[in-house]
Design goal:
- The protein is 0% helix and 37% strand.
- It has a single domain, classed as Rieske [2Fe-2S] iron-sulphur domain (Rieske Iron-sulfur Protein), CATH 2.102.10.10.
- β2 and β3 form a beta hairpin.
- It is globular, with a radius of gyration of 13 Å.
- By secondary structure, the chain is mainly beta.
- The protein binds FE2/S2 (inorganic) cluster (FES).
- FE2/S2 (inorganic) cluster (FES) binds next to loops.
């Protein structure tokens, strides 16, 4: 990752096997953050189907078994690692990835977030 990164949160602020919304703006969290052990996956909180936020309530982005990301609006299912939509109305589409890395127990992300309009 380039040197242009910004601190997101501490790793231990993320529930292992769970998700959190971060970078709150107004009533919306801009990011969907999923932790699996020492790995963290960060996605723009923007469903490619109708560009709505994904979560069904704050910090709740995952299926009941924690196995994948689900968009609450129309039940699109996304792979946590690849962001690939494998079921639902936008099958074949992708979430937008925010490059992230864990350093010394801290999660850092790219300073520039991807744009839905690129
Ligand atoms: S807005 Fe996400 S499935 Fe429709």
């Amino acid at each position: 990752m380039s040197h242009e990164s910004r601190f997101l949160c501490r790793l231990d602020e993320l529930p292992d096997g769970g998700s959190r919304g971060l970078l709150r703006e107004g009533f919306e969290d801009r990011l969907c953050v999923v932790r699996q052990g020492d790995e963290v996956f960060v996605w723009l909180n923007d469903c490619p189907h109708e560009h709505r936020p994904l979560e069904y309530r704050q910090d709740q982005f995952l299926s009941g078994d924690g196995g994948h990301i689900v968009c609450y609006a129309h039940s699109a299912h996304f792979d946590i690692r690849s962001g690939h939509c494998f079921a639902g109305p936008c099958t074949g589409a992708h979430l937008l990835k925010v490059p992230a890395e864990v350093r010394d127990g801290e999660v850092w992300i790219s300073a520039d977030l991807p744009s839905v309009f690129d």
